[in-house]
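=== RUN LOG ===
request id: a7f3
mode: sequence -> structure
chains: 1
length: 84
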Amino acid sequence: MNKLALAIAGIVCAVSLTVQAGQGKHKLTPEQQALKKEMLEKYDTNKDGKLSKKERANVSKEDKEKMEKAGLDQKKKHASKKSE
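=== RESULT ===
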C-alpha cells in the first residue's frame, strides 16, 4: 500500500513539474515579436539582445502600457521567476 501511495505521489509531482515548465514557454505572435524587436532596438543600449534591469527602468510608461496590452507584461514574467 505504501509503495502504491509513493508511486502515485511521484507521478503527481512529475506531472506538476511538467505543467509548470510548459507554462513559461509559449510562442509569440508576429505582432508580439515585432513589438519586442522594436523595444529592444529602442532600449537595449549595450546591444546584447536583452534588457537589463537598468535598461528596463528606462522604458517609458507608454511603451510599458503598449507591451502589457500586447501580452508582453514583464512584471508577470519576473514575478514568476522570483517564485521559482
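=== NOTES ===
Helices lie at 2-23, 30-43, 53-57, 61-69, 74-83.
Confidence is low (pLDDT under 50) at residues 76-84.
=== END ===
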